[in-house]
């Protein structure tokens, strides 16, 4: 019988994922652009995505501020968006970020929620003459 639970520690890595995790952690630490960075981790169910995320978080948590947010926990898009901004505000509060930033985030959250147009699985936000598409995929890999 095999244990299917994700691992959390380097010492638990029996499938040699740490080479990949170390390389990814180094890339994140060395990222110097002012542009945003997005990293996607794709794989079939049970392939080790959660283990890699856990190991990566343990490697970079001293250097990088991490907000762990699971979109599958929310039954509606409004709750998902609202909860994301609430969690982000809590994290910024813990970091001692200026109150003006938290007020701006609250206003931004309200604008998003007020301008959400349901088009099936695609949500269109119209903010300041920009068209932003949020693709909410309800597919489990």
From TrEMBL:
Species of provenance: Methanobrevibacter olleyae
**Protein name (Swiss-Prot/TrEMBL):** KAP family P-loop protein
Q: Which Gene3D superfamilies match?
A: P-loop containing nucleotide triphosphate hydrolases
According to the entry, every stretch annotated as the KAP NTPase domain falls at: 18-112
| Alphabetical list of InterPro entries matching this protein | KAP_P-loop, P-loop_NTPase
């Amino acid at each position: 019988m095999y244990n299917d639970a994700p691992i959390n520690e380097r010492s638990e890595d029996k499938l040699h994922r740490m080479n990949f995790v170390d390389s990814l952690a180094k890339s994140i630490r060395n990222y110097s652009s002012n542009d945003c960075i997005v990293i996607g981790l794709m794989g079939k169910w049970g392939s080790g995505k959660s283990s890699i995320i856990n190991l990566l978080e343990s490697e970079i948590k001293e250097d990088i501020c991490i907000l762990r947010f699971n979109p599958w926990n929310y039954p509606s898009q409004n709750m998902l968006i609202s909860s994301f901004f609430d969690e982000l505000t809590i994290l910024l509060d813990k970091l001692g970020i200026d109150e003006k930033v938290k007020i701006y985030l609250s206003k931004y959250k309200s604008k998003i929620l007020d301008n959400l147009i349901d088009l099936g699985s695609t949500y269109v936000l119209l903010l300041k003459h920009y068209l932003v598409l949020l693709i909410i995929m309800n597919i489990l890999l």
